[in-house]
Write a structure and sequence with these properties.
This protein is α/β, with parallel strands linked by helices and 247 residues long. The chain has 9 helices and 9 strands. A 6-stranded parallel beta sheet has the order 3-2-1-7-8-9, sandwiched between helices. The protein has a 3-stranded antiparallel beta sheet with strand order 5-4-6, with helices on one face. β7, α8 and β8 form a beta-alpha-beta unit. The longest helix has 16 residues. It is globular, with a radius of gyration of 19 Å. The structure holds ligand BJW. The site of ligand BJW has 35 residues, from α1.
């Protein structure tokens, strides 16, 4: 009987993009030390002051477009894993940057949305948007002015593609969490969901133990650009593409 390699789900967070030059949220120098999340990452904040929220995301969109922001070895290694692993590799990212795509990952879900898209609150259509957005812009589809908002998931809003994510978590043989602090649900609950399904080995790769660290079978601590390429090399060099732990 041929060995069937297990499907892999990789959850990524802001830590994977830190070495590409993008700020995390909750580290000492992170985004939440610069702005109040209630002001910029809630629907209430956007209703109160849309211009200020646009300014916050415009600055991040401009930063993402700067020449020095590029995928780092961790993004590139995950794209290699998807190409060379004989089972399915699904990346579920909480990040709104496009560094996984730029690294070559195809099977990717942006559960918290995408910085380079906006959507119309009237006709709900997401659109690619690379420049600045302000309250004077009209939706190119329905023509309504002031109805465009960043295509991101704020606190109190439902993350995207949850049905597909939950199905993948139930059926994977390996769950890997990279560069996330485990503070924000539902992503913070994925490891528990995987453990409950009882099939998969679980690994955390992070700079430091996350909030849910004790729930993982295995953990490695250090920079994503060191840990992820080493982990991928290890996975691909195992004969038959088998996981490191029991499945
Ligand atoms: C490195 C590194 C290196 C550094 N190498 N590693 C009470 C209990 C439970 C849940 C809730 C509750 N009250 C409210 C909730 C729900 C709420 C929530 O979780 N709140 C918590 C704060 C408690 N969640 C929601 O509201 C979500 N929706 C939801 O639950 O819907 C269900 C529902 C809706 C309505 C009614 C009923 C039910 C939505 C969450 C949306 C999160 N949005 C944001 C902003 C997105 C857009 C943007 O980017 O601006 O998403 S917040 C922010 O946090 C962003 C991130 O994706 C997310 C996670 O952060 P992440 O990635 O973990 O970053 P950090 O900074 O926290 O961690 C980085 C890690 O990397 C650290 O550990 C570092 O050590 C490490 N690191 N350098 C490796 N070089």
């Amino acid at each position: 009987m041929p060995t069937i390699p297990p499907n892999i789900v990789v959850l990524t967070g802001a830590g994977i993009s830190k070495e590409s030059g993008l700020d995390t949220f909750r580290d000492a120098d992170g985004i939440w030390s610069q702005v109040r999340l209630e002001d910029v990452a809630t629907p209430e904040g956007f209703r109160r002051d849309p211009a200020m929220v646009h300014q916050f995301y415009n600055a991040r969109r401009r930063r993402l477009a700067q020449g020095d922001i590029e995928p780092n070895p961790a993004h590139l290694a995950l794209a290699r894993l998807e190409r060379e692993w004989r089972g399915e590799v699904l990346i579920v990212t909480q990040n709104i940057d496009d560094l996984h795509e730029r690294a070559g990952s195809d099977n990717l879900i942006h559960m918290h949305g995408e910085l380079l898209k906006v959507r119309c609150r009237q006709c709900r259509k997401p659109l690619v948007w690379v420049g600045d957005l302000d309250t004077g812009h009209a939706c190119p589809d329905c023509g309504r002015t002031g109805s465009l908002r960043p295509h991101v998931v704020w606190f109190g809003e439902m993350p995207l593609a949850m049905d597909r994510i939950n199905a993948a978590l139930r059926h994977c043989g390996l769950f890997v969490s990279v560069g996330t602090s485990g503070n924000v649900y539902p992503a913070a609950g994925f490891v528990a969901a995987v453990r409950q399904a009882g099939r998969a080995h679980t690994i955390e790769l992070n700079l430091e133990p996350s909030e849910g660290a004790s729930l993982f079978h295995e953990a490695r601590y250090g920079k994503a650009s060191d840990l992820v390429p080493a982990f991928v090399e290890e996975m691909l060099s195992r004969s038959g593409n088998l996981t490191p732990g029991p499945i």
